Amino acid sequence: MGGSAFASGEHPLSTPRMPPKVYDLVKAKCMAALRELYICVASPIEGPGKEDFGDIDMLVTWEKAAYQGGRCAKTIPTAAAKNTYIDSAKRDFDDWDDAGTDDEEGQERSPSHSLTPRHNAREAIRAALGAEYFIFNKGGDHYAIPWPSCDADGTTDEGSKRYIQIDITICNSLQQMQWILFKHAHGDLWSILGTIIKPYTLTADGHALFLRNPDIEKFDKYKSKAKIRLTKDPAEILLFLGMDVARYSEPFASRQEMFEYAASCRLFRIWPEECDEESGQADSASSPVSMEPATPSSAVPDYTSSPTSREPVTPATTMEPDTPAVSEPKPGDGRGEPAKKKLKAKDKKRLKTRPAFRQWHEEFIPRCRAEGRFFREKTTWLKLTEEAFERFGVISWYKRVHLDVVRCRSEDRVMADVLKTIDDVVPVDLTNPQRCQFRGGLKKALKKIILEGDESFGVVPENELRDGLGLIIKDEVDKFVRKSWEEVGRAAMAKHQQRYEEHCRDTGKGKSQ
What we know:
By secondary structure, the protein is of the alpha+beta class. The protein has helices at 20-34, 64-68, 118-129, 174-183, 189-197, 214-217, 234-240, 245-248, 255-263, 345-353, 355-371, 381-392, 395-425, 433-452, 474-507; strands at residues 38-42, 56-63, 133-136, 141-146, 163-170, 202-204, 209-212, 227-231. The protein folds into three domains: 20-181, no CATH class; 186-281 and 316-393, no CATH class; 399-507, no CATH class. Residues 96-118, 278-350 are annotated as: Disordered.
């Protein structure tokens, strides 16, 4: 198979895989053409062991028009290609749509951003490449150019309708370009590294390296708050993982060489038996700053203390440095299952479609296990988390987000109990509109009083409903609801009636009830 972007649609094209000579020839020509438009043009370092290529990936940023005082639109030929179409349907282009943008704090911006509309930039690229077909997508654009009439080895392409797929991402900044080049270098290397660092609550996505909070990510409602950004500096990331920074910048001669480099990551280890190296790390550990977010009563743990000032739950894989053995797998802990069963859907797909990723899991890891390599764990999840706190200065933010989620979780649970209490004391009766209205007004009023401290209803709790950390005190809430629900309900109905009468006066319609 070649590039897949043009395999279907109104005009399906033949985009076969390119031999290295054709790939190098076309890539060089595209680079030269794009450098007429952009100052920065680059491609990720190719993965080792490739005998042919399905497409050509390229990144561009910093338009020359921004520095030459011109507009990109002026350089666009008036005659467009005869056979062109745009398909904005979402497609799977191997995670390139995960590249992200530079809307985060501290990102430098190219001075050309406000000068050239994206459509004009795409048209200029199409014209420069001589593309006959193109597909524009949010994550990147795809251009189909004719297969060269004469290959690098002299073979002609007469009589055939073959095309080459060029995938181009217009980066918002040089920093974004550098990150994409780093993340997609060496083909499947970061797919491999991702499975290595995941058990240690580290994740590298389309933006940066993140530290995940295992206490938060287990709750779908708050999963977006579980990641704390560490850095998007490639050198810093490699140093933190204990890897050779300079070596990363050069291509690998073979997959075996790339696998050995991936295994040099200080977080890589192999279970001596056919156990799941993905389980038993963060899955069984809690955040170093607290226990599992729960609903506290009057007593709560000290979330403001140092993560080392109290003994957190120890990760299941933590062991003495000189002990290569692992503990006996326990029923239900997942450690007796093959590693493949713990892979995410994306990784399972990669096992089928990415030869290097499959070879890592099916050949390299079993061979290292048989040879007794990489059994010893070099660090633990807890130690690594504390290192990240110190190295990247994120402990304050980590604690703040954690405590915010603890507060929200406590509010969720308390309000669930409050609503259940209301259902008990004021049962649902769909035949009674006044009761339905009373129940609705009562629930809304209690939520405002308990969560927002609203005193406009004239009913104020005798005791504080939150402790010094802002956490809900469940016992006090229960007492308040049992004692004051009727009073709150009447006040809510009176307030509703007052708003209705004011509305009638303002609009001059209807009469007060």
